[in-house]
Amino acid sequence: MTSANEKPMFRDLNADNDPEVTEIESLCLRCQKNGITKLLLTKIPFYKEVVLMSFSCDHCNWENNELQPASKIQEKGVIYKLKVENSKDLARVVVKTEWASITIPELEFEIPAHSQEGTVTNVEGIIARACSNLHSTLAYLKKEDPDSAGKIEEFIEKMTKLKSGESPFYINSFLENFNAPLPDPQLEVSYFDQSLEEIRMLGLQVPEDSENATSSVQLKEEDEDLREEVLGLPTNCYSCNAPCTTNMKITHILLLLSYIY
């Protein structure tokens, strides 16, 4: 607990409070000279505690922004599904960590986990950034692969139309709830048990029982696959010594025993 005079480490970010930003001199990965990293520990309403990081280098003018979660990792994974119906929905805040993915099912578009650093933006910003990244590849593709360049231009056009807010679409990520703390009729939230691969990806220790259970299942599946497989071994015929192939297959032979009394 914090005392009356002691401020919490993660404070709500609002206009009434002056944000406490920590500045650290750090190495620039681009020019290998020193730049400045700014850290802000804050809370995102109805989300969790996060660390906002911003790096800038005066030597090469390189800048980088990143968001890292700072709270306890949840036991279950969560999926947020928003139906974007108008231009107001395009302004909803989107929080994407490094571990999260964003999808727009109508366009079969996905920003997979680990493909981007964590960021705080809005729905329109997600679309604009995706279009910008695709635009950056067009100059090269128009020379090397005109067909692919044409398809990307068509896709960018479809993405751009989404920013008008005229065509409803769904987007999956952590999104702002306009009715918080009450449910939002446009925002569907569901939870799921994380797979062992996802648990390992988060750097958590996998329970030994789960490991053993998974190993048993894998061994059983491998054993079943082996029973369906026919192995061909090169050999020689016992009668004429000519080259031939011996086929082998694992199977069960039912043994019946009769007892006569």
TrEMBL record:
Molecular function per GO: zinc ion binding
Annotated keywords: Metal-binding, Zinc, Zinc-finger
Entry's Gene Ontology cellular component terms: nucleus
Database matches in InterPro entries: Znf_ZPR1 (IPR004457), ZPR1 (IPR040141), ZPR1_A/B_dom (IPR042451), ZPR1_jr_dom (IPR056180), ZPR1_Znf1/2 (IPR042452)
Residue ranges constituting the Zinc finger ZPR1-type domain according to the UniProt record: 26-177
SMART domains: Zpr1
Domain of life, source organism: Eukaryota
Family affiliation: Belongs to the ZPR1 family.
Protein name, entry field: Zinc finger protein ZPR1
Phylogenetic classification of the source organism: Eukaryota, Metazoa, Ecdysozoa, Arthropoda, Chelicerata
Protein encoded by which gene: Zpr1
